[in-house]
Amino acid sequence: MSRQSASFLSPQSDPLRHATEHLRFHRRRFIAGAGAAGLAWMNPLAELLARDAEQKNSQSAQSLILIWLGGGASQLETFDPHPGAKIAYGSQAIKTSIPGIQLATGLEQLAGELHRTTLIRSIVSKEGDHERGTYALKTGYRPDPTAVHPSIGSILCHELPQEVTRLGLRTEIPRFVSIMPNQWPGRGGLLGAEYDAFKTYDPARGIPDVRARVPEDRYEQRMTGLNQIEQAFMQRRRRFVQETIHRETLQQAHTMMTSDQLRAFDVTEESQSLQDRYGDRPFGRGCLAARRLTEVGVRCVEVTLNGWDSHANNHNMQAEQKAALDPAITTLIQDLADRDALRRTVVVCLSEFGRTPKLNGLEGRDHWPHGFSALMVGGRFRQGYVHGATDPEGGKEVESPVHVGDLHASLLQAFDIDYTYENISRTQRPIALAEGTPITDLYQ
């Protein structure tokens, strides 16, 4: 199997391995791995600890859906309009379900559901380049030549145990999925390539090469032959072939290829009326697939909508992207609410930066990391709350700024993850999961 294929697969948590590698004893990971480690004598204690953890974490989110607006959405044409101000340049605003709060035109459906959300209008970053800005917003850190920081999805997979689905099955497909990714999807970084996002594209096209191309009996013969070759090869090099990373990767790939959970990618199993509500576009289908994937235990799904980089013809470019965003994200919120899934699922809508208050000579807006917006729904996050404000005159000063590190600390705390915990890089440097502080006003 190729190295690329190996990066798609997230291994089951092993408590003993993590205790030695990371020099800590993580209760939840130990519970999840006790059976796999063969510690049958621990089952009664594990059950007690599991019940205790479940009670303490009943309010914690379990899955994240990251709606990524690639290219830099304009806050003025989406979540933070300033109608009538000079910086609006004619952009209009509409009323929402939160009294006194407006969104930009083109988000009429979302405006009706805004009372379910937390809206942050004061995110501040130090990165105004696409690649560096994406890195910062997905990891919580500025790029560093000495370490590659893990993205938020990778951290969730690393810190939280494999979830047992409602049918009593463990997640058999990748637990971090990136749908319609641009060139900078989430990465495992210092946690390892096994925590990279599994990349896939329009759900209507399916997942290429994931099903065997030969009859089942012939496929099993091939796997038997491969196993014999592997055994013969490894006997001369290592006694326990089943413990090798390569062997583990092959087994996980086989599990994924034969898993019924792959059906979660198939949005055609949903009613046509629901598919229509999400929108007949790759992005809409991606949001619907994201909801389905969280139901089989996927920890994080990135769904990317590119095309927001409006250096010219800003108003028309932003309007075109909102036509895809508005029905999809609104239906996702409604769909999760109808299924009582917002308690355990967090939806975040975010860009690498915003856009300048001033139009350039091409009627476009350029990069602006000095005050932009994010929308958060579900989990512990408040409903009908707006945090922070930008200057209606276009200045860099913002009210109640939320730095990138603070945003990540807030997200991790919503999942009951210790954001201060430090991983050790290859250069033996301790690096905290987040370098900021949670914004307590964001929580219920």
Low-confidence stretches: 1-53
Please count the beta strands (DSSP E, at least 2 residues each).
17
- Secondary-structure class: alpha/beta
Round the mean pLDDT to the nearest integer and report it: 86
**The first-level CATH class name of the largest domain:** Alpha Beta
Whole-number tally of structural domains: 2
Radius of gyration: 23 Å
Strand content: 15-25%
Q: What overall form do the CA principal axes indicate?
A: globular
Q: Distance N terminus to C terminus?
A: 46 Å
**Share of helical residues:** 25-40%
CATH topology of the largest domain: Alkaline Phosphatase, subunit A
| Discrete helix count | 13
CATH level-two architecture of the largest domain? 3-Layer(aba) Sandwich
Name the helix and strand elements from N-terminus to C-terminus, one letter apiece.
Answer: HHHHEEEHEHHEEHHHHEHEEEEEEEEHEE
Major sheet description: 9 strands, mixed
